[in-house]
Write a structure and sequence with these properties.
Radius of gyration: 17 Å
Helix content: over 70%
Distance between the termini: 36 Å
Shape: extended
Order of helices and strands: HHHH
Low-confidence stretches: none
Largest sheet: none
Number of strands: 0
């Protein structure tokens, strides 16, 4: 229980730090752009979670060897992160007219 609270607290601190650090950049965006950006990040997180957890377990269920199962899960994680890492910046650039993402 305490480990969960520590990670939750660290997550909140990192989010607040990034918002404060990029507040000038966020002031350039409209409310609709901010909402779209937040929804895009949440959608990417949900897509990654569903793909990795359910998709990875479903695909690795067909493999009986533990080594191959872990390899399939690892490949699923890498593919999902690459896919989300490609789609999210594309969406952000379109929604914010090139203001985001800043590398």
């Amino acid at each position: 229980m305490t480990k969960d609270l520590v990670f939750l607290t660290l997550f909140i601190i990192v989010v607040v730090y990034n918002i404060v650090k990029n507040r000038n950049l966020l002031k350039e965006l409209t409310i609709l752009q901010l909402l779209g950006t937040g929804v895009s990040y949440l959608a990417a997180i949900m897509l990654a979670f569903v793909s990795i957890y359910y998709g990875g377990n479903w695909i690795s269920g067909f493999v009986s060897n533990r080594f191959l199962e872990v390899t399939v899960q690892f490949v699923t994680i890498c593919f999902t992160l690459m896919f989300c890492g490609y789609i999210l910046p594309f969406l952000l650039k379109k929604m914010t007219n090139g203001v985001l993402p800043k590398s």
